[in-house]
Write a structure and sequence with these properties.
The chain is built from eleven helices and twelve strands. The chain is α/β, with parallel strands linked by helices.
Length: 381
């Protein structure tokens, strides 16, 4: 069994909100020197609402720009502008008179912009060029998937990024996602040299996560019983609490800090054994852990990162550095990291609050019957 580069990029990049904003915000709240006018491009998906919530708690004035399709009920008291990142398309093609492209942003002035929705360089370029004369700081949320390969252990922000033979491609796939994000970064910096900050998150986790990837582990511990754990526990992993990332983004804006920052955690890559046990402790579970050797899992077609999220074997060809990116620069710039136990508990509390039809668990992860089957085979080997 092997996992392709496309699988890694798709998994690493693939970004019930009521009650999703937990105590991690309240713990570190000191008011900024002054209130900023902040435009959020996006703002209603997973990361966006957390950024908005934290920025509002800091006393900033927020305006949201999006198509009005995702969670439109959120933030009724904030100014909302509608349009499309594609300057040639309307916000809603089925609605007569729907705003075209970025027209509602023309002539508007802001202190800063948070761009959570850049995927195509042409769209990024249009947004930044329009806004550049009337803003001071542009922040773009990128991804750790921009890097050309994941084989270098401890790579920092200077590592080479992926490229496309045809840079006019706009279809976002597992193969193009990272290189397109890299081109978006470059488009922003060209339009606003020296006034751009960029976060490159790893796997974003926590309340509101629509992917169910990190959620698999605390929810599996909550269910209890015998839990299949991958390898010998010595493989490493990384993650970022969505609330920590949100705080960091606003910190960069408040301090007018520019540059590129790998934005994941913990401060050093964590052993899978420590990660799993912290999830168990965080949710107060009495689950028992059974560690199953990597070759056996490969024989039974258990996919790293897919069936068992946040796990990549350290001997996986071309992926030795996948969960080892250096975050020293981000921590020096103000990134703070919440305890994993708290993240696990808050994620379970959120997931349990969802109605049954909105299960937080991905169907792609290891399902109970399959887990039991593999554990049985492991014991009978």
């Amino acid at each position: 069994m092997s996992i392709s580069r496309r699988d890694f990029l798709a998994a690493a990049g693939a970004a019930g909100m009521a009650g999703a904003f937990g105590p991690a915000f309240a713990a570190r709240r000191t008011q900024p020197a002054r209130s900023l006018r902040i435009l959020i491009l996006g703002g209603t998906g997973f990361l966006g609402p957390h950024v908005v919530e934290y920025a509002v708690s800091r006393g900033h004035t927020l305006t949201l720009f999006n198509r009005g399709r995702t969670n439109p009920q959120l933030f009724p008291d904030l100014e909302k502008l509608y349009g499309n990142r594609d300057p040639e398309r309307p916000a809603d093609p089925e609605e007569e008179g729907s705003p075209i492209g970025l027209t509602q942003l023309e002539g508007r002035e802001f202190d800063a912009v948070v761009d959570t929705s850049s995927y195509v360089p042409r769209h990024t370029e249009a947004s930044v060029e329009l806004l550049a004369p009337n803003i001071k700081h542009y922040h773009m949320v990128s991804t750790i998937s921009v890097y050309a390969d994941h084989s270098t252990v401890g790579a920092d922000e200077t590592a080479p990024v992926g490229t496309l033979i045809d840079e006019t491609v706009e279809q976002v796939t597992g193969q193009t996602y990272g290189p397109l994000k890299a081109l978006c970064e470059q488009a922003a910096e060209r339009a606003m040299p020296g006034r751009v900050s960029i976060t490159r998150p790893g796997l974003i986790c926590g309340p509101g996560d629509p992917t169910g990837r990190f959620t698999y582990w605390p929810m599996r511990m909550h269910r209890g019983g015998e839990v299949l754990c991958p390898g010998d526990g010595q493989d490493v992993t990384q993650w970022i609490d969505v609330r920590d990332l949100s705080r960091f983004i606003i910190t960069l804006i408040e301090r007018q800090t520019t540059g590129i920052f790998n934005s994941t955690g913990p401060a050093e890559p964590e052993l899978m054994r420590v990660f799993v046990e912290a999830c168990r402790e965080g949710v107060g579970s009495d689950a028992t852990l059974t560690w199953v050797e990597t070759p056996f899992l490969r024989e039974h077609d258990v996919q790293p990162f897919g069936h068992l999220p946040l796990w990549v074997p350290r001997d996986e060809e071309g992926a030795q550095g996948f969960f080892t990116y250096s975050v020293k620069r981000a921590i020096a710039a103000g990134l703070t990291l919440s305890p994993l136990r708290m993240l696990a508990k808050d994620t379970v509390d959120w997931a349990l609050s969802l109605p049954p039809e909105r299960s937080a668990l991905s169907r792609a992860t290891l399902q109970p019957d399959r887990e039991a089957e593999i554990l049985k085979a492991w014991k009978e080997r």
